[in-house]
């Protein structure tokens, strides 16, 4: 565990002591070494439980894929941010990379925490670096408004969780994940127990986000710089799903009774946010709403409480993390050249950037869950388990799948096909850095086809 955490912390002195002209290559090499080292976690024989334990951190088959994805994303964020950060003063560049590193440390501690209160503290701590990223390095004037939404939605959702965890500590005498599963099942009969159940889940449902609690997400995504959008889509939304998976097993008695409204919201959200995507004019906003749609399916898979639902949710979270991050990178390459996110003004780019159009095609197909990609495996496992819970859900999940295919193709056709507008004929060519960035996103996704058991979770 510490073989990755300590080098990540040591990245901070690397950032501040490296000469200015070597800053980006040095930090990229350092973070990529950490990411490659983290792959060793995947080979641990921990199918039966916890491994690499110390007093407050451990790995298990649920947290390992999310930790590896977290480590893998830092070098990609550094690679994606290099072009638009290079014109800033050197101290601001160093501060920017330090904030990304701090965020990675908090995320590693959150995903490997074995005490629920430690997890809660790290869950909240990720808020600060993300808020700084959005409000300081965002592109538009609305970034302060977006940061306010992000802060207050997350805080308002998290306070009931803190109260619920303190009550759990008072009732069971422990908050250790090792011990909580062996404590006697709580009766959970009264209205207060039902409120406690809701309090435990609301923070994670806001973070995912569930439809109805999602208004902060499109604002935060659209206003954030490229690194902020990548970390939000790929990792921070997954904190919500991970927290739900951890806490749901402790709330077993009430889940079948109380999950109905959340299930309905999740499945209805898949259709509603997909429909919103079909009428978007802003490219980043479309990708952000598609994240809400996919996370609705993940929430449904977790709330079902079946092994297939859990495995499908984890698989879809990892696949969506790589896919949506790649889509935000592609949207950013368009924005850096055309200086607009409006799809009508930046269309027909296949004529100007044919190789980039190939990356757009692969990423769009991954977003609509083309077989045999892990996106489809995760979606099919969730849809099957939800159908097993109630056959009527097939209408919602089926419609959601069709709408997802519709907006993914709409996004590809709007950005790549058609005549190239006269005002954007003189474009910069695509750079090797951008192709490397997209290769590092989409090749792992394609490789997971050969070995999907790495991200199946505890039912592997």
Could you characterize the architecture of this molecule?
The radius of gyration is 21 Å and the shape is globular. By secondary structure, the protein is mainly alpha-helical. The chain has 18 helices and no strands. Helices cover 72% and strands 0% of the residues.
Please give the structural blueprint.
Layout: H1 2-17, H2 23-38, H3 63-85, H4 90-112, H5 116-125, H6 127-137, H7 143-172, H8 177-180, H9 191-207, H10 216-223, H11 226-248, H12 255-278, H13 283-304, H14 307-338, H15 354-367, H16 374-389, H17 393-416, H18 432-447
Helix pairs in contact: 1-2, 1-4, 2-3, 3-4, 3-11, 3-14, 4-5, 4-6, 4-11, 5-7, 6-7, 7-9, 7-10, 9-11, 10-11, 10-13, 11-13, 11-14, 12-13, 12-17, 13-14, 13-16, 13-17, 14-15, 14-16, 14-18, 15-17
Tags for this entry?
460 residues; mainly alpha
Provide a compact summary of the structure.
The chain is an all-alpha fold. 72% of the residues lie in helices and 0% in strands.
Helix content: over 70%
Largest sheet: none
Question: How many helical stretches?
Answer: 18
The residue-averaged pLDDT reads 89
Structural class: mainly alpha
N-C termini distance = 22 Å
Radius of gyration, rounded? 21 Å
Proportion of residues in β-strands: under 5%
The count of DSSP E runs of length 2 or more, i.e. the number of strands, is: 0
Order of helices and strands: HHHHHHHHHHHHHHHHHH
Shape field: globular
Low-confidence stretches: none
């Amino acid at each position: 565990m510490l073989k990755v955490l300590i080098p990540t912390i040591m990245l901070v002195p690397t950032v501040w002591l490296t000469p200015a002209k070597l800053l980006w290559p040095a930090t990229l090499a350092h973070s990529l070494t950490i990411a490659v080292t983290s792959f060793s976690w995947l080979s641990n024989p921990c199918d039966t439980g916890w491994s690499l334990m110390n007093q407050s951190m451990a790995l298990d088959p649920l947290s390992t894929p999310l930790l590896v994805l977290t480590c893998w994303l830092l070098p990609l964020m550094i690679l994606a941010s290099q072009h638009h950060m290079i014109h800033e003063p050197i101290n601001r560049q160093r501060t920017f990379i330090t904030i990304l590193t701090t965020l990675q440390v908090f995320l590693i501690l959150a995903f490997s925490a074995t005490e629920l209160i430690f997890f809660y503290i790290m869950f909240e701590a990720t808020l600060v670096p993300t808020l700084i990223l959005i409000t300081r390095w965002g592109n538009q004037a609305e970034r302060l408004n977006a940061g306010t939404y992000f802060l207050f939605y997350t805080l308002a959702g998290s306070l009931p969780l803190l109260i619920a965890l303190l009550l759990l500590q008072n009732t069971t005498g422990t908050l250790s994940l090792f011990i909580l599963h062996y404590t006697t099942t709580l009766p959970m009969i009264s209205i207060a127990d039902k409120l406690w159940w809701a309090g435990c889940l609301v923070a994670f449902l806001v973070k995912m986000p569930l439809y109805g609690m999602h208004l902060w997400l499109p604002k935060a995504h659209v206003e954030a710089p490229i690194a902020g959008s990548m970390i939000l889509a790929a990792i921070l939304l997954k904190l919500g799903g991970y927290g739900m998976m951890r806490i749901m097993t402790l709330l077993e008695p009430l889940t079948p009774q109380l999950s109905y409204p959340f299930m309905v919201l999740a499945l209805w959200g898949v259709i509603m946010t997909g429909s919103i995507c079909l009428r978007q004019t802003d490219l980043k906003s479309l990708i952000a709403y598609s994240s809400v749609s996919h996370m609705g399916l993940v929430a449904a898979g977790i709330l079902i409480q079946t092994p297939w639902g859990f495995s499908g949710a984890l698989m879809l979270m990892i696949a969506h993390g790589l896919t949506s991050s790649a889509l935000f990178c592609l949207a950013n390459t368009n924005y850096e050249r055309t200086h607009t996110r409006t799809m009508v003004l930046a269309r027909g780019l296949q004529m100007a950037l044919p190789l980039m159009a190939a990356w757009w095609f692969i990423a769009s197909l991954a977003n609509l869950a083309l077989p045999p990609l892990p996106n489809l495996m995760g979606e099919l496992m969730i849809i099957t388990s939800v159908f097993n819970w109630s056959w009527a859900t097939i209408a919602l999940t089926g419609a959601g799948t069709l709408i997802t295919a519709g907006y993914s193709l709409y996004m590809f056709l709007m950005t790549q096909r058609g005549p190239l507008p006269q005002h954007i004929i003189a474009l910069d060519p695509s750079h090797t850095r951008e192709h490397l960035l997209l290769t590092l996103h989409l090749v792992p996704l394609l490789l997971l086809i050969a070995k999907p058991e790495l991200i199946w979770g505890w039912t592997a």
